[in-house]
Write a structure and sequence with these properties.
This protein starts with 5 loop residues before the first helix and ends in a 7-residue tail after the last strand. Helix content is 47%, strand content 19%. Strand 5 and strand 6 form a beta hairpin. A six-stranded mixed sheet has the order 2-3-4-1-5-6, with helices on both faces. The protein has eight helices and six strands; from the N terminus they run αααβαβααβαβαββ. It is of the alpha/beta class and 182 residues long. Helix 7 packs parallel to helix 8.
Length: 182
């Protein structure tokens, strides 16, 4: 893909800055190397700000969708809480698309009644059942904190067909389900 494809990528939700970086100068980063090497249907790409998670996620998305923009979608984690729970067409679109990135996991508000968690579990269950590719990016680098925040259903998906990859500027650590405390 080239910069001529930028409008199609941004229509699918990829932030323009991220899409531009992925298309023009992705570079070989730890995050990119590990994202593209993953074969699981659920990948958690964790790391502190600035390690290249978003660009790696964009490259992963292009790879999984084989460059076909109609097969990919990118959303911000907070958007899942705000709009998708009440819009059945939008919900179906993200639940069924071949490859999905949910960016900035961990910044969304978790309400007392669990609306966000319920919506997330429904999306993930549907995607998991249909063998759809999903990547979550997060700054939560401690797998036990991630496990505590998102609960047993999400963590069981990671255990069965997922990877929790902690990236840094230097190296990644690929963790298995025993690190999640499940």
């Amino acid at each position: 893909m080239t910069l001529e494809d930028l409008p199609g990528l941004t229509r699918r939700g990829i932030p323009e800055r991220t899409a531009r970086a992925a298309l023009t100068s992705p570079g070989e980063t730890d995050a990119t190397r590990n994202a593209l090497a993953s074969r699981e249907h659920l990948v958690i790409l964790a790391g502190h700000a600035g390690v290249g998670k978003s660009v790696a996620a964009a490259l992963w998305l292009l790879d999984k969708a084989k460059g076909k923009t109609e097969c990919m979608r990118w959303i911000q984690s907070g958007d899942l809480a705000r709009g998708f729970a009440y819009d059945p067409d939008a919900f179906d679109a993200i639940a069924n698309v071949w490859a999905l990135v949910i960016d900035d996991f961990g910044v969304e508000y978790l309400d007392e009644k669990g609306r966000y968690t319920t919506t997330l579990e429904e999306v993930m269950s549907r995607r998991f059942a249909r063998l759809r590719f999903t990547m979550l990016t997060t700054n939560i680098v401690d797998p036990s904190v991630f496990a505590e925040r998102y609960g047993e259903r999400i963590n069981s998906r990671i255990h069965e067909d997922g990877a929790f990859i902690v990236c840094s500027d230097r190296k990644s650590t690929r963790l298995n389900s025993s690190h999640l405390g499940i």
